[in-house]
Automatic annotation (TrEMBL):
Residues 1-21 form the signal peptide. Residues 57-126 form the Cupin type-2 domain. This is Cupin type-2 domain-containing protein. InterPro entries: Cupin_2, RmlC-like_jellyroll, RmlC_Cupin_sf. Pfam families: Cupin_2. Keywords: Signal.
């Protein structure tokens, strides 16, 4: 457990250093402006063998919402700009710039929306899971 906490702390530290590195990735469209993976690293330590860490920036235009989806791996979020309302497992949450959150794997994320009708919002999502496992799966209608 201690190694996992140290690894997550190191990964978050790496976020600060690597936030400007931007890599594009094809993925399902869950918002009008698709999220952009900005960093991805496969971890091969004794406690995290073949685990991949991803940083994803999700931009929300004023009033924009994401569609229903699930994250099959642990999800950490940090609001970079604006204010977001998120519905996770039927419960609504509001997050402002500078606030962070965690979502359990496979929970139904009914959607996230930018509460402002005039200003954009930006979310940094962090994922860690098996190498190559998708971090986002659209909910079937």
């Amino acid at each position: 457990m201690k190694k996992v906490k140290l690894t997550l702390l190191a990964a978050c530290s790496l976020l600060v250093i690597s936030a400007k590195a931007q890599h594009k990735m094809d993925m399902p469209d869950v918002t009008a402006t698709p999220p952009k993976v900005i960093f991805s690293k496969v971890l091969n330590t004794a406690s995290l063998n073949n685990q991949e860490f991803k940083l994803v920036v999700v931009n929300f235009a004023p009033g924009e919402s994401s569609s229903a989806h699930r994250h099959p791996i642990p999800t950490f979020g940090y609001v970079l700009e604006g204010e977001l309302e998120s519905t996770f497992e039927g419960k609504k949450y509001r997050y402002k710039k500078g606030e962070a959150f965690y979502e359990e794997p496979n929970g139904l994320h009914n959607g996230t929306r930018n509460v402002s009708k005039t200003k954009p919002a930006k979310l940094l999502a962090m994922f860690i899971g098996d190498n190559g496992k998708p971090f986002l799966v659209p909910e079937k209608k």
